[in-house]
């Protein structure tokens, strides 16, 4: 039996898809999550998708005793660390909560790993660490900065990992900088289920398509982009999940890898809305609003490092991202509270 991998935040949006990818690859996993932003019903969906039961521990990454007990119980081969708070606006209103959860939580996890002699980690970072990037596409060597407290927590965790690796080169660390993950598992059993009004474009579009929200607000059509709306690098969440498997495989030697996970292809808000409406045959009422504070015009990954170091690249196109997001939302109008 292979040693299991600990997946923190494994009942969340990206974590749950990664659990499925690992299980399909024959890699046993244990999920740790405090369920602060996910539903225990995700576990029923995972049980439907996987032949073998998935172990789940409800605990907080800030709880050192719980972590020590978990590391004593299992001989983990490594940790994939998704657990964190991720809402930019909320982080502006509650910076201390974000620092506590994301930074103190990560430091606590690293200390528990060190005590248990488990020094292989894949960390969820974000394109947000590029701040207001000057060059497109963005290479991993670009300057780093934070434009909000959420971004600062990612940067602080990245810095801690770089310092840890410099001090103790036994660590195997992959820092993965995700661009804009969207889509859902093709079964329609797993997907993104935000609480309240969605902050992100794709879940907002799917709720408008369902009639739960009247109209998509397009935040600005006067950017210096081909159609004036913001351009992003959207990638399918199942491609992103596969990136974690690739990263873990690449970490056979002690090292620190820093890799963008994106497609390198730009999609505007208008492209996204038009593609979603065409692929799914659903109208999306829309109106143009002023720009949203803090948004950049364009954000695109340079994906070459991921190909070179992880042998990873995306497989799914925008049509597939739109089709899968809509299948998930239309099959689950109440998210995970929708009866199976
Ligand atoms: P998510 O909120 O769906 O999942 C995060 C999970 O972590 C949730 O299940 C939550 O309950 C859990 N969690 C939070 N704090 C915890 C704690 N203290 N202890 C235990 N569990 C805790 O978010 P996601 O979209 O799946 O994102 C996963 C990771 O990827 C996050 O670190 C996020 O910052 C990062 N990320 C996400 C995006 C994105 O657009 N979704 C982009 C870049 C980076
Ligand atoms: C995409 C585009 C909006 C909603 C955020 C975080 C980032 C990362 C991913 C975690 C932009 C436009 C959006 C709407 C719109 N998360 N938009 N109407 O801002 O690129 O990134 O999520 O690390 O840190 O900042 O993604 O999906 O919010 O926006 O017009 O209702 O859609 O202006 O151009 P973003 P997004």
Task: Please provide a written account of the structure.
The longest helix is centred in the first third of the chain and has 21 residues, at 95-115. It is built from 11 helices and 13 strands. It has a domain at 5-182 and 235-262 and 300-314: NAD(P)-binding Rossmann-like Domain (Rossmann fold), CATH 3.40.50. The protein is α/β, with parallel strands linked by helices and 340 residues long. The strands form 4 sheets. A 7-stranded parallel beta sheet has the order 3-2-1-4-5-6-11, sandwiched between helices. Strands 7-10 form a two-stranded parallel sheet. The site of nicotinamide-adenine-dinucleotide has 26 residues, from helix 1, helix 5 and strand 5. Nicotinamide-adenine-dinucleotide is lined by residues 9, 11-15, 33-38, 60-62, 82-86, 101, 105, 124, 126, 178, 181.
Write the SSE topology.
Layout: E1 5-8, H1 13-24, E2 29-33, H2 42-49, E3 55-58, H3 64-73, E4 78-81, H4 88-93, H5 95-115, E5 120-126, H6 149-167, E6 172-178, E7 180-182, H7 201-210, E8 216-219, E9 231-232, E10 234-236, H8 237-250, E11 255-261, E12 267-268, H9 269-280, E13 286-289, H10 304-310, H11 318-331
Parallel strand pairs: 1-2, 1-4, 2-3, 4-5, 5-6, 6-11, 7-10, 8-13
Antiparallel strand pairs: 9-12
This protein binds nicotinamide-adenine-dinucleotide and UDP-4-deoxy-4-formamido-beta-L-arabinopyranose.
UDP-4-deoxy-4-formamido-beta-L-arabinopyranose is lined by residues 86, 88, 126, 128, 180, 199-201, 204, 217-219, 230, 232, 269, 292, 295, 299.
């Amino acid at each position: 039996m292979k040693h299991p991998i600990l997946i923190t935040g494994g009942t969340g949006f990206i974590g749950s898809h990664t659990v499925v990818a690992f299980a399909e690859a024959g890699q046993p996993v244990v999920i740790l999550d405090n369920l602060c932003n996910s539903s225990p019903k995700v576990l029923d969906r995972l049980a439907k998708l996987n032949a073998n039961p998935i172990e789940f521990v409800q605990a907080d990454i800030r709880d050192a005793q719980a972590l020590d007990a978990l590391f004593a119980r299992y001989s983990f081969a490594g940790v994939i660390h998704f657990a964190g708070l991720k809402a930019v606006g909320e982080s502006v209103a509650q910076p201390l909560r974000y620092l506590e959860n994301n930074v103190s939580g990560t430091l606590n996890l690293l200390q528990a790993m060190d005590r248990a002699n488990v020094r292989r980690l894949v960390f969820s970072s974000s394109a947000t660490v590029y701040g207001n990037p000057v060059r497109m596409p963005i290479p991993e060597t670009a300057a780093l900065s934070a434009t909000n407290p959420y971004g600062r927590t990612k940067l602080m965790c990245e810095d801690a990992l770089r310092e840890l690796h410099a001090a103790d080169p036994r660590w195997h660390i992959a820092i993965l900088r995700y661009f804009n993950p969207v889509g859902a598992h093709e079964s329609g059993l797993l997907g993104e289920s935000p609480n309240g009004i969605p902050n992100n474009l794709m879940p907002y579009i799917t709720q408008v398509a369902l009639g739960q929200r009247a109209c998509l607000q397009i935040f600005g059509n006067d950017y210096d982009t081909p159609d004036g709306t913001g351009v992003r690098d959207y990638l399918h969440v199942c491609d992103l999940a596969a990136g974690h498997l690739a990263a873990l495989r690449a970490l056979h030697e002690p090292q620190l890898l820093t890799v963008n996970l994106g497609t390198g292809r730009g999609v505007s808000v208008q492209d996204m809305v038009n593609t979603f409406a065409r692929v799914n045959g659903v109208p999306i009422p829309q109106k143009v609003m002023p720009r949203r504070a803090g948004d950049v015009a364009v954000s695109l990954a340079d994906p070459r490092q991921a190909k070179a170091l992880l042998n990873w690249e995306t497989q799914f196109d925008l049509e597939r991202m739109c089709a899968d997001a809509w299948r998930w939302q239309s099959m689950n109008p109440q998210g995970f509270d929708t009866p199976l």
